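Q: Here's a chain of 91 amino acids. Please give me its 3D structure as tokens.
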Amino acid sequence: MDRWPISAGRYLAIISCLRCDWESFPNILRESWLRRIDPGSEFAVDEGMFGYYSRVDDSSPQRYIPRKPTPNGLLVYLACFKTEACILCLF
């Protein structure tokens, strides 16, 4: 049996609080995205690393990039847009 990072009771308590109307969720997400994002001409894509090491899961997608401030971890790609109020980064 694999070991979970949280207890079963805590997991069930969190899951019991989540409610979503899955039929309307895609439309809400799409509308909020369209209202907030106007990529315009200022757009960037970059890679980032989250420090991570697992002794339990050898198959986790850990990467090593020596030039990064955190050279070992999980590799993600970031898309960044300049918006009216701030810079928004998406994973």
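Q: Can you summarize the key feature?
A: The CA atoms of residues 10 and 16 lie 10 Å apart.
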